[in-house]
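JOB MANIFEST
job_type = single_chain_structure
chain_count = 1
residues = 386
[input]
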Amino acid sequence: MLPKLDDLSRWAVIACDQFTSQPSYWEKVKANAGDSPSAYNLILPEAFLTDDNSQAVSKINKAMNDYLSRNIFTEYKNAYIYVEREMLDGSARKGIVGAIDLEDYDYRHDTTPLIRATEQTVKERIPPRKSIRENSPLELSHVILLCDDERREIIEPLTLAKHSMTKLYDFNLMLGGGHIRGWLIRGDNKRALNMRIDSYIKRKSRELSLVFAVGDGNHSLAAAKACYEDGITSRYAMVELENIHDEALKFEPIHRIVRGVNVDAFIADVEKNICAKKESWPIKYYCQNKEGTIKIDKSKGASPLIVLQKYLDENNCSIDYIHDTDALKELSSEEGTIGFELPAFDESAKRDFFRVISESGVLPRKTFSMGHASEKRYYIEARRIQ
């Protein structure tokens, strides 16, 4: 479903889990939307989450029903949408908006579904999302699902076929989000796409224990799963499928800061327990008066972060998660503090991504960020779930 609006730039807003410490950003979104129908009225930004969100949830449900009663949507049944998102560097990230069967997805550690979470799911983050979904007639989704299609057989053929498809939208996203275009996938294009997806699933099922991985929005998808298992809402959930091998899809590491330690003793213990001179991963660290490198033992786990995070968790360390390297260095200069700079996700890391998850299970929480905050998925499409 898409709103029948001449200007979608006031409708589309960024994922609710962005700018959580910047409520001023969301005030700008509200002002930008004004009195026009907007997805802003159908979501609850995490910047405004409280212990009791009942009033906000009630307002969201009321707005959804109001939009439906006013017939502001055009519904495209049994179809996909091909999306091209122009990023801040000018590249175009490609995707397909569709729905997945929640029977094929699970985030729990003791399961091996075809669709799996990439990072640890914090169960305490599910109830607020579930409270919104369980009484909502509609869903709007910021979930990004990843496929490991190194042959580029699923999504990329649509780039050539888009000229034969109906263009549904083409507009600038608000507040520096870039530009986005979408085309309707029906008929022969849809049948060919389904065949390519089926072929990919059969091929990947022979290679790995998972076929698709949740890159963004796992807690929202977990809430959809919980609502379905409770018999409240649809068995299906809307996602955007993207290829991890798309050059425009950027993965950025999330660094670690540890506070309240004797730095020299801490480094000595790290080197004693998780480091090796041979067959190792180098990780840079920063502290008050120096910087250095530790060499994490490759025999301890499938990636340096898996090994390091396990050590930090087992030692009950006080951890902060930092995106920017300059901020990492600055914060690490405080007394009793050490910062670990995690390696960038280069093409080799992207190639190994599915294999690591297949062999080791979900990655530690806060492993990576898919692009900058302003490059996260915007809510555009809607779908009936009740």
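[summary]
DSSP finds ten helices and 22 strands in the chain.
The radius of gyration is 22 Å.
exit_status = 0
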